[in-house]
Amino acid sequence: MQKRWEKIKQSVSLGISAVKEIAGFSTVQEDKAYLDLIEQITEATAVLTEIEKDIDSYAQSVSAFTNAQYSLSGHIFALFKQGEQNYETAESAHRGQEAVYANGKNFSGHYIETYLKLPIKKLQEELTKINEMSNERKKDHILLVDSQNDLEKAKAKGKIKDIVEYQEVVATRQAKFAKIDDQFRQAARDYLTAAPEKYSNIFNMFQSYVAEFFDEGRKQAIDNVPTFKYDEIKTTRPTLTIAPAEPPKEEEQPKQEITNE
Fold first, then answer.
1. Band of the pLDDT at 160, cuts 50, 70, 90?
2. CA contacts within 13 A on the Cβ side of 37
3. What residue spans carry the region label Disordered (predicted)?
4. Is residue 143 part of a domain?
5. From the centroid of its chain, how far is CA 164?
């Protein structure tokens, strides 16, 4: 019965603390070192969640882009009959887009999965464990403070039996809290110490694969189609590096007032 009552009391204490936290009040005071750690861990968790979404979106975009570009080049090639001007050039360009399509398939599938998604997933798994430690630590801290308050009340009333009982509870909870607190801090520090190098590896893989993807695309579109006069044609049309001027807006004509003659 006593153990059951103790569990009920713990649940009530945690519930009250959760309600106060939602309302903007904290039942426990945390030191600055802990708050700094949890802030960095929370921020890393949020950013990696967004990166995970971006990676999925990017992989889909690369796949859709190369599929559409390959299809478009094929249909443009179909406009020409053998022997006509630009037939062979369009044919070479279409073959080049087939290689770009294959590169896009490789990139959006295996390479993004292996060198971007998996490293991010491993970091997220580390953070999940650290956040679980933080949640467990928070519960143990609340219960420790609650038992310390009970002990102070017992001392104020001079109840020796209750004092002895609460001293034992405080000692047990203090030891448990100290253990999880140390585990959390160590895990958080280890993650944050190792993170910059891991983040750099992810950046290097992303940047180098993006560069290679577009570099290979350029080769297939220009270098491997020598009969296509890219530099000459480029001078005959506007460059996409300059935003087009917006068309002038038509002045709104004043509305004529309708009157009954």
1. confident
2. 22
3. 236-261
4. yes
5. 50
- Alpha carbon distance 78, 91 (integer Å): 9
What CATH number is attached to the domain comprising 174? Answer: 1.20.1270.60
- How far apart are the C-alpha atoms of 104 and 219, rounded to whole Å? 14
DSSP per position, 149-168 = HHHHHHHHHT-HHHHHHHHH
**Is this prediction's pTM over 0.85?**
no
CA Rg, the chain, in Å? 33
Q: Is residue 29 in a domain?
A: no
Residue 60 lies in a domain: yes
Range of the domain at 178: 46-234
pLDDT at 119 > cutoff 60: yes
Output DSSP code: residue 248: P
Rounded distance, CA 234 to CA 244, Å?
16
Q: At what angle do helices 32-77 and 87-106 cross, to 10 degrees?
A: 150
Are the CB atoms for 209 and 58 separated by under 8 Å?
Answer: no
| Structural domain includes residue 165 | yes
Q: Which residues contact 108 (CB under 8 A, 6 or more apart)?
A: 59, 60, 62, 63, 66
Q: For the chain, what is the domain count?
A: 1
In angstroms, the Cα distances linking 15 to 24, 113, 135 are 14, 41, 14
